[in-house]
Amino acid sequence: MPFITKKLYSSTRQMALNFLMEELGLSRSEGQRLIARGRLSQNGIVMDDQFGFIEGECEFICFQPLSRGFKPMFVTNDFVVYDKPSGLSVHPHSRLSPYTLNDEIKHEFGDDANATHRIDQETSGLVLVSRHKKSETVLKKLFSERLISKRYLAMVRGHVKDIIDIQEPLFRHDHPNLLISMVVKVNPKGKPSHTIIKPLRYFPEHDMTLVEASPLTGRTHQIRVHLFHVKHPIIGDPVYGPDEKEVIRFIQKELLPEERLRIGGSTRLLLHAHSLEFEYENKRYNIISNKDFVQECFEAMGKC
């Protein structure tokens, strides 16, 4: 488990923030953030006040990355790119989360390295990671200003014959069933959302189409919901398409691969972050995944 509990000792009464900064070499902002998250406790009581005092033995919950040897596919002095497999989360969802891409990022490049965006656990493909705080600020600004072009590949149901320009607002709201934390739907109350779908190849024997999806906005589950809305759902999507009872079973990790194959036609979501194009310090980058996505689709569908 990446999160471990360290026993620390303060020989004098001092501010908890100052103690963590000196004991663990944290910056002031890092110490404040970790205290606010309840990582420090004494005598079983969580200390979430950065101005509180501490003395004697205390416990601190920290992230200790566990590497499995997964390496980035593209490396520069300022940033790297990982080609993430489906099923691997970028960040831990809680302290009980198992291995994530964040383990490899921190293990290889240190605490200041961070993923600058997220892709769903079920989605495979490229993740752009900053190696230090300066590049993180620059890259996140590029994302927020939509200066990074992202293209995805998806295997969808049905025959997509022409380019589809989807401009439907997406609304995110809590689901009445607490096990399903939220759903995203096309709704006039939602935020403006724009996706361009381009057909690449039709497979008549399976009535499915390989498409390229270009999200011009960055909403949660945007590509998945837009394709579901135009009646071309992504094969293997465990949330947008199946009955609610099957969605709940997926969330609770009760669905076996063979059940997912039977219900959704694939053991994984057939969506892949294929390319990233952007300019960084006056140099143009066009980074393309080297994975054979079509081959991976047929393997996940049991067609090989």
Q: Give the uncertain stretches in residue-range form.
A: none
Major β-sheet, in short? 10 strands, mixed
Order of helices and strands: EHHEEEEEHEEHEEEEEEHHHEEH
Write down the Rg.
Answer: 22 Å
What is the CATH superfamily label of the largest domain?
A: Pseudouridine synthase
What is the share of helical residues? 10-25%
Judged by helices, strands and strand pairing, the structural class is alpha+beta
Give the overall pLDDT as a whole number. Answer: 91
User: What shape does the CA trace take?
Assistant: elongated
Measured distance between first and last alpha carbons = 35 Å
Contiguous helical run count: 8
Can you tell me about this structure?
The protein has about 300 residues and is α+β, with helices and mostly antiparallel strands. It has three domains: about 5-65, RNA-binding S4 domain (Structural Genomics Hypothetical 15.5 Kd Protein In mrcA-pckA Intergenic Region, Chain A, Roll), CATH 3.10.290.10; about 75-145, 2-Layer Sandwich (Alpha-Beta Plaits); about 150-300, 2-Layer Sandwich (Pseudouridine synthase). The chain contains eight helices and 16 strands. Strands 5, 6, 7, 8, 9, 10, 13, 14, 15 and 16 form a ten-stranded mixed β-sheet that branches. A four-stranded antiparallel β-sheet has the order 1-4-2-3. A two-stranded antiparallel ribbon has the order 11-12. A hairpin with a 7-residue loop joins strand 11 and strand 12 (about 180-185). The radius of gyration is 22 Å and the shape is elongated. The two termini are about 35 Å apart.
